[in-house]
Amino acid sequence: MRKRIVDLSFGEEPLLDIGAYSRGMRVVTRARRLQIALTVHRAPEVMVKVSGGAKTLAGVGTHIAYVGREGELGVEMDNGTRVDGKGFEQQVISDWDLDIEELDWRSAAPDPRRKPVKLVHNLIFSMPPGTSPNAVLKAVKKLAVNEWALRHRYALALHTDEKHPHVHVVLKAMSEQGERLNIRKATLRAWRAQFAENLRELGVTANATERAVRGQSRTYKKDPIYRAERRGDSRFVDGRRTEVMRDLAAGKLQGEKGRVALERTREDVRAGWRQIAAILKSSGDYELANSARAFESRMSPPRTDKEWLARDTVRGSIEQTAKQREPLTR
Fold first, then answer.
1. Which domain holds residue 190?
2. Is 31 left (phi over 0), alpha (psi -120 to 50) or beta?
3. Which of 92, 136, 271, 323 is packed most tightly, with the most Cβ within 10 A?
4. 330 residues of the chain, pLDDT tens digit each
């Protein structure tokens, strides 16, 4: 039996565990049913992303200044106080004893080849356009208290200058008890599930499922690449686009590593959804069973990053040509 490559969960309870379903698991718990319904009806998805982390005091200061809009917005600290104004980032660094922590690390690591550890993690909690910014902020605050209060120091700020409301969180990597936080995929899954649940408690429809279970294959760009692309000066994206255009001119996209794994993942996901639909139907939940089956049948073919870029390039070229052909109006 080939290795299962899909491992998706709702909190700590699997939603689409292919291995379990293949062994005859026939139970759809209340939590599973809720997430199935949210997913097949395409409820807005929460996003929780690690946008980096600073390993130097200068890096910490730069990021906190960005989050707090150079002091004009400031940040809300974990004790509920607000810090803002010119040089506010240095106040945060001092309050968290990051200067002492960096000094201790350098003293304990005389080997110059040893890479420095993160002083802080930079996190982003986001929702689609149209979501109440105040609700997003409240949901993140509740998560922060549950996850980090009295353990990890943190500061946060709500940004509404883009269409999707989002909260930046600067989280101290070392806890007050001397334990370092390592953020793993399971950690992010749990945070996403909790963020979505907090939003639902506030009356905001929100879901937290993996892209694969929703039939999406487009991956998120790393934060520096995303920001550079928005500015129009991403050498990485420009290089990939040049490669795609060369392939398109030759009449065929060259193969991309991971294509086989992508197709196998989609195959497993679709099989899992068919099993879920069958289980729902056998339990008499015909309406949700039909919705699950329709959701599975409408999944578009998976695309690699290169194929997504090719599609976007072709669409952009078509739109540009159409604009050039539009008659001039006086």
1. 47-201
2. alpha
3. 136
4. 344 434 444 444 445 554 454 455 667 788 888 989 999 999 999 999 999 999 999 999 999 999 999 999 999 999 999 999 999 999 999 999 998 887 776 666 566 666 788 999 999 999 999 999 999 999 999 999 999 999 999 999 999 999 999 999 999 999 999 999 999 989 999 999 999 999 999 999 999 988 888 887 666 545 554 454 454 555 656 666 666 666 555 556 656 666 777 888 888 888 889 989 999 999 999 999 999 999 999 998 887 666 656 666 656 554 455 554 555 444
Residue 144 CA to residue 156 CA, distance in Å, equals 9
Neighbours of 13 (CB within 10 A): 12
Distances (CA, A) of 179 to 127, 173, 215, 321: 31, 8, 37, 57
| Size (the chain), residues | 330
Structural domain count, the chain: 1
Predicted TM-score of the model (pTM): 0.77
Taking CA atoms, 238 is separated from 228, 242, 309, in Å, by 10, 6, 11
Flag whether 13 is in a domain.
no
Other beta carbons within 10 Å of 300: 9
Assess if residue 154 is contained within a domain.
yes
Rounded Cα distance between 295 and 260, Å, is 23
CATH of the domain at 70: 3.30.930.30
Q: Say if 223 falls within a structural domain.
A: no
